[in-house]
Amino acid sequence: MTNTPPADPSAPVTAGSTVSTASAVFLGVRHHSPACARLVARAIETLRPAYVLVEGPADMNARLDELLLEHRLPIAVFSHYRDEARVATSWAPLCEYSPEWIALRQGRASGAQVRFIDLPAWHPAFAERAERYANRYADAEARYARATERLCAHFGVDSVDALWDGLFEVTEPGDDLMTRLDAYFDLVRGDAEADPGDRAREEYMASWVRAALTRAGGRPVLVVTGGFHQPALRALADRDGPADWPEVPAPPEEALGGSFLVPYSFRQLDAFSGYQSGMPSPGYYQRLWEAGPQQAARDLLRSVADRLRARGIPVSTADLIAARGLAQGLTLLRGHPYETRVDVLDGLAGALISDDLDRPLPWTTGGTLGAGTHPVVVEMVAACAGEAEGRLHPDTPLPPLVHDVTERLVRLGLADAEGPVTLDLTSADGLMRSQVLHRLRVLDIPGFTRVSGPADGADPVFTERWQPGRASGREAALIEAGAYGARLDEAASVVLGERARDAGPDVGPLAGLLFDTVLCGVGPLCGELLGALAARVGQIRELGSLGEVLAAALGLWRHDRVFGVARDRLLGSVVADAADRVFWLAEGLHGGPGVDFARLRALAAARDALLHAPELLSLTREAAAEAAGRISRDQRAPSDLRGAAFGLRWALGTPDDPAAAVRALASAPADTLGDWLAGLFAVAREEVVGGAAASGEPLVDVLDGVVSAMTDDDFLIGLPALRQAFAFFPPRERERIAQRLLERRGARGSARSLLRTTADPLLLARAAALEDNVARLLDRYGLGATR
Predict the structure, then answer these.
(1) 79, containing H or E segment
(2) Distance of CA 444 to the CA centre of its chain
(3) What are phi and psi of 576, to 5 degrees?
(4) Who is most buried in 23, 334, 347, 590, counting CB within 10 A?
(5) Burial level of 424, CB count in 10 A (0-12/13-18/19+)?
C-alpha cells in the first residue's frame, strides 16, 4: 500500500503553469524524490488527464495489474536478457515516494489510462548503461556533471544531494516548484548531446506521447519522466510522426529474456550502499514523505542516538542538545527554511565526533562507505538508510525456479532447518541434499553457509556441515536467479557455464570452478568444463595457474569415490597435458630471490602425477628426472624452483647428493639457502626426513653445520627464509628435527618447549645480535663490566 502524500503548501499544479506541448504536460522528476512525488499527485488531481505516461519498461504494460497489487514497498521490476553475445540484468526500483509509483497509483485511481513508455531493459539502448549502473533509473545527469558542479559552487554546497534538498525538498510555502525544476533540468541537459542509447529511448518515449495525444479526446496527457529527458521529449513530441501505439520490442527468438517483480529494501536503494540513482538515505526521505521536514529531522536525530546507544557508544542528552543546536544554526546560516538531511548530519557530526577524520564525511562526497569509516558516521548513515524490506503480494506471479527450489527444500527437509545440517556424502540422500545446497551457493541464494567439507577431490573428507542463516532476501535472489533457468540444476549449470566463459584465457579460476561443478553434480556441464580445460591447458603461461589445474584434476581422477568422476577419460587428458607443460614452463623460468608457493605446488603436482598416474602420461620418469636435473643446475632459475627440481629427482628415485648441494649454497647470498630449502621441502619433505646424504650423514646434520658456520649478520639475513622453509614440516616432524639438534649439541631439554617460544624467533635473534653489538661497543671504550 502507499500512503496518501501529506498536503503540500506550494501552489497547485495547473496546465498553464507547466511546460506543455498541445495538451501534453511534461513533469521532469528526480527518481525517488518526495517533492517530485507530491508534484505528480497534485498534477493528476488538478489535470484529470486521459493518459499518464511513465518512464518505465513498456513490456510491463500487460502486467500493470500485477505491479499495482497491494505489495509492501519497496519493490523493483527485475529484467533479464541473455543470448550468445550478451547478458544483461536491470532493476527499476519503486518506493512509496517514487514519482513513478505515485503516477501509476494515482493515475489509475483518477480513471486515467496509465502506461510505461520506455524501451524494455534488455534493449541494446541500455547496453552501455547496464555496464555502469545496472538499473534503469540511474541519474543520467551524473554524466553531465559540469552544470551541477557550477550550481554547487554557486550555492556553497558540497554535493548534488545537498543542492537538491535546498532547492526542492525543503522549501518555503508557495514556491513555484515546477518552474524551478524546469530551469534546473534545462540547465543540467543544456546543449549536451545525449548518447545513442538515450536518443533511442527518447525517440521511443516521444512516439508514445504522440499516440496518446491522438486518443486523449482533448484531455491532457501527463508525461512523467526523469528530468534529464524532459527537454528532449518536449521537442520530440511536437514533431509529426505515426499516431499508432508503438510496438513493444520482443527479445530475439534465440534469446531468453523477461521481467519479474522482486522485493527490494532500503539498504539496496541507498546510494551509500552502491545504488546509482535517485535520492540517498531512503529511510530519512520516507519520513520526509510521511511527516514533513521538521518531523523527519527530529526522527533522524532520535534514530542516530538509538543506534549508537544500542552499540555501546555513549550519547548523552547534552550531546543531543548540542547536535540539535548546531543543526539549527547551520539551517539558519545556509538559508534553509527547515533543517535538511545534511544540516542534521553535520550537526550530529560536530557534536558527537571529536576525533580527526582521515576522509571527508560521506554525505559531502557521495559514493559508498569505505573500510575504516568512523563508527559514528557508519551509524549515522545506517539511521538515514532505514531497514524497510519489501514484500510481494501473495498473488504475484513468480518464476518457475522459485517454486522448484521451494519444493526441493521441503522434500529434502531443508526448508525449516534451525540448527547445523550434517550430510553424509557417501549416502545417496546426503549427496542429493549436498548438491541442492551447492547449487544454491553458486547462485548466491542466501539461507545456508557451508561450514566444512571436502576442499578438493583429494580431500579424504566424506561429510559436510552447513549452517542455516537468515533467509532475508532469498525470495528476491531466487526471482533474479530465475533468469538462468526454470529448474535449480539448469540454473546452476548456466551460471557455472558463464563463469567458465568469463574466465577466458585465464585458466586458473577453472580449477576451482571444476570442483564447484562436481559438487553441484550438474552432469553434462562437467564434460564441457573438462573439454574446455583440456583445450586450454596448452595455452597456460603461468606455472602457478597450471599447477592449480593439474592438482585439481589429478585429485579428482585419483581419489573421487563420492561424486563419480574418478578415472574419467577427459580428466586423464587434462592431467597428461598439464604435467607435460609444467616441465616446459619450468625449464624456461628465470628470476630472482623469493619463494613462489604456487610454482612449488605445480612441481609437487607433477611429482604426484608421475608417481600415481604414470599410465596417463607420455612423459616418462626418466625424462622428467632429466628435465628436473637441468632446472636444478640452471643458475638463472629462481632458487626455490631449483630446490624443488632437486627434490623432484629425489622423489623420483634418482637423487643427486643433497649434502654437496647444501654445502655449495654456503657461499651464496644468505637468503638463498632458505629459498632453495623451501623448494626442496615442498616436493621431497618425506625423503628429507627419512633419507640421508651419499655420505650417510643425515641432511639435517649437514644443514646444521652450514647454518652454524654462518656469521651473525648472515644468519639474521637468512633466518626469515629458513623459517619459511621449515614451515613445510608438520609440528611432529619439526619436533623430531629440534630433538636431533639438541642431541648434536649434547644438550638436554624439551624439543617441544624449544619450538614454543614466547616471542618471534626472528625478534629474539635480532635482540641477541643487538646485545652482542652493544657489549662489543662498551668493551671498545672500556665501559664494559669488570670481570
Answers:
(1) strand 75-82
(2) 11
(3) -65, -50
(4) 347
(5) middle
Closest listed residue to residue 52, CA positions, set 11, 89, 107: 107
Say how far apart CA 296 and CA 284 lie, in whole Å.
6
Cell of 365: 562526497
Give this prediction's pTM: 0.72
Q: Rounded to whole angstroms, how far apart are CA atoms 458 and 558? A: 7
CB 326 within 8 A of CB 351: yes
C-alpha–C-alpha distance, residues 25 and 431, integer Å: 62
Q: Is 99:36 a contact under the CB 8 Å cutoff?
A: yes
Q: CA-to-CA distance for 280 and 270, rounded, in angstroms? A: 5
Three-state secondary structure call for residue 222:
strand
Q: Cα(491)–Cα(525) distance, rounded to whole angstroms? A: 12
Q: What angle do CA 464, 467, 468 make, to 5 degrees?
A: 130
Residue 299 CA to residue 313 CA, distance in Å, equals: 19
Degrees, nearest 5: CA angle 277-282-284: 140
Distance CA 650, CA 633 (A): 14
Q: Specify the DSSP element, H or E, that contains 713.
A: helix 712-726
Cα–Cα distance between 90 and 80 in angstroms, integer? 6
CB atoms within 10 A of CB 480: 22
Amino acid 713 reads D
Are 315 and 305 a contacting pair, CB within 8 Å? yes
Beta bridge partners of 54: 116, 224
Residues 351-408: pLDDT tens digits?
Answer: 888 777 767 788 877 767 777 778 888 888 889 888 899 999 999 998 899 999 999 9
What's the pLDDT tens digit per position in 238-288? 877 677 899 998 888 888 888 889 999 998 888 776 565 667 889 999 999
Task: At 752, list the grid cell.
Answer: 617441544
Only one residue has cell 646485545, namely 771
As a whole number of angstroms, the distance between CA 58 and CA 115 comes to 7
What distance in Å separates the CA atoms of residue 49 and residue 18, rounded to the nearest whole number? 14
Q: Which residues make Cβ contacts (< 8 Å) with residue 653, sequence separation at least 6?
A: 621
Give SS3 for 253: coil
Q: What is the spatial distance between Cα 759 and Cα 545, in angstroms, rounded to a whole number? A: 36
- Output the nine-digit C-alpha cell for 767: 635482540
8-state DSSP, 88: E
Q: Which one-letter DSSP state was computed for residue 10?
A: S
- Whether 534 and 514 have beta carbons less than 8 Å apart is answered as no
Could you give phi then psi for residue 507, rounded to 5 degrees? -80, -15
Which residues neighbour 485 within 8 Å (Cβ) at sequence distance 6 or greater?
401, 491, 493, 494
Dist CA 223 CA 203 (whole Å): 14
Q: What is the pLDDT of residues 378-390, one digit of tens each?
A: 888 889 888 899 9
